[in-house]
Amino acid sequence: MILGVAVVAVTALLTFSSFFNKWYYEPVLKPGQPPLPPGSLGWPVFGNMAAFLRAFKSGRPDTFMAHYVAKYNRVGFYKAFLFWQPTVLAATPEACKFVLSKDSFETGWPESAVELMGRNSFAGLTGESHFKLRKLTEPAVNSPKALEQYVPLIVNNIKACLARWSAQDKIVLLTEMRRFTFLTVLHILYGKDSSLDVDETFSLYYIVNQGIRALPINFPGTAYNKALKARRKLIKLIQDVINQRRASGKPQETNILSLLMDQLDDKGEALEDAQIIDVLNMYMNAGHDSTAHVIMWLMIFLKRNPDVLEKVKTEQDGIAKCISEGEMLNLSDIKRMRYLSSVVDETLRLANISPMVFRRALVDVEFNGFTIPKGWHAEAWLRQVHMDPHVHPDPEKFDPERWEKYGASPFTFMPFGMGNRTCPGNELAKLQIFIVVHYFVTGYRWTALNPNSKVSYLPHPRPRDFYSVRVSKLL
Ligand code: HEM
C-alpha cells in the first residue's frame, strides 16, 4: 500500500516536473503566429543543462546538437532551457545570420557573467552606448595603424619567451601563452609603463574568467564567489591607476585608458570611472585567454599533421630569409603568409574556442516558420555551423587546403562572431598568432610530452595537461 502511494506520488511529481518549464515559460501565441521551434524546455531550474554537460564532459560536444538534428531535422532553430533561461538554439548559417544581424536581438550574456564583466562593459551595454564605446576603442586595438605599432612589442615578447622556454626542461604551453597574450593586451590598454603588477592582475583575471563559466552560486568557497572577490580587487587596482594618471597629467602615448579618460559624452561630461574600469576589464577578459587557446591548438594541429607543419615551415623560412639582419617582421611580411593564413582559419574553425554567443529577443520575432518569443535567449551555435558536414565537408578533418577549395562566406565561418558585436580584437589576435608561429617554426622545435592527453571541452577545449611541451632551439 505505502509502496503504491509512493509510486503514484513520484510519478505525479515527475510528470508535473517534466511539464513545469513548458507551462511556466512557453507563451500563449497569438492567432496566426507560427509555432515555437521544436525541442523541449526540459526540467525545472536545470532545463537541458544535464544533456549539455553530458555531451561536453564526455569529450563528444557535438552530440549535444546532433541529438536535435537527428530528432527534428536540420530546421535551424530548436527550443531548449540552458543557463537558467528559455532559449532558442540557432544552428545553421541562415539561423545564425538572422540572430546576429537583426536589431530585434541584443546581447544576452547570462546575468552572472554580466555581473563579473561589469554592467558598463560591452556585455552589459546595448544600442548607442555600446556603439559609441566600441567606435572609440576598437581602432586603437585593431586598425592597421595600431597593429603596425604593436608588431615590435609582440616580436620582442615572443623572442624573449622562446629563449626562456628553450632553456627549461618543459613548459606548459597554454599557461605560457596566456601570460604572453596577457602582456600584449595589458600594454595596449594601459601603455608600456602601467603600475599594475603583472603577476597579481594575471591571477585575478584567471579567477574572474573561471567564475564567468562557473555555476552562479554566490556562497563562500564557490568559483563564482571567488570571482566576485577578484573583480572587486581588480576594480581597486585599476582605480589606483586612474588616480595616478590624473595626478600625473596627460600621458605621452595613446592607449585605451587614455582614450577613455579623455572621452566626453554629448553633454561634454567625462565618462565615470566605473564605466572606464568595466570597459578595460572586458577587453582584458576577452582579449587574452582565447588567443592563447588558439595558439596552443595551432601548435597541436601542426604537430599532429607533419605535412602541414612542413609547408608552414617552408613558407616561414622563405619569409625569414627576406628579413635583413637587425630588422624584424612587419605587416607586409605577414600579408604574404598565405598558407599560414589558411592554417590559422582551419584552427579557428576546428578549435571552436567560442562555441556559441548569447543574444536575447527584444520583441517576438518570426523566422523560417517559427516564433522566437520576446525575452527568450537566443544562442548562435557557431560550433555547430563549423562542424556541420553540409557546410564544411569532412568537418573533423584538419584540412587547411579546404579554404583554397571553397573559401569562407560570412555566416559559414564565424570564429569571431558576426554583426555589431564581431570581436573588436580579431585582427590583433591573428597578428599575435602569425608572429608566434613565425618565430616558433623558424627558430625552434617542440615535443609534446603527453601527446595522448585527453581533451576537456569546458570551459574551453584544451588537453588536460594544457599542452606540456619541451622546446629546443634549432641548430
Ligand atoms: C582568437 C582569439 C579570439 C577569439 C576566438 C574571440 C572570439 C570572440 C567572439 C566570438 C566574440 C563575439 C561575442 C558576441 O557576439 O557576443 C568576441 C567579442 C569580443 N572580443 Fe574577442 N576573440 C578573440 C580575441 C580577442 C582579442 C585579442 C580582444 C581584444 C584585445 C578581444 C576582445 C573582445 C571584446 C571586447 C568582445 C566584446 C565585443 C562586444 O560585445 O561588442 N577578443 N570575441
Question: Can you walk me through this structure?
Answer:
The chain is an alpha+beta fold and 475 residues long. It has a domain at 20-120 and 354-386: Uridine Diphospho-n-acetylenolpyruvylglucosamine Reductase, domain 2, CATH 3.30.43. The chain has helices at residues 2-25, 49-57, 63-72, 93-101, 111-117, 127-142, 144-166, 173-190, 198-212, 223-248, 256-262, 273-304, 306-321, 331-335, 338-351, 382-386, 402-406, 426-443; strands at residues 77-82, 85-90, 105-107, 171-172, 357-361, 365-367, 370-372, 377-380, 444-448, 455-456, 462-463, 468-473. Strands 1-2-8-5-3 form a 5-stranded mixed sheet, with helices on one face. The protein has a 3-stranded antiparallel sheet with strand order 4-12-9. The protein has a two-stranded antiparallel ribbon with strand order 6-7. A hairpin with a 2-residue loop joins strand 6 and strand 7 (370-372). Helix 12 (273-304) packs parallel to helix 18 (426-443). It is globular. Bound molecules: protoporphyrin IX containing FE. The site of protoporphyrin IX containing FE (HEM) has 24 residues, from helix 6, helix 12 and helix 18.
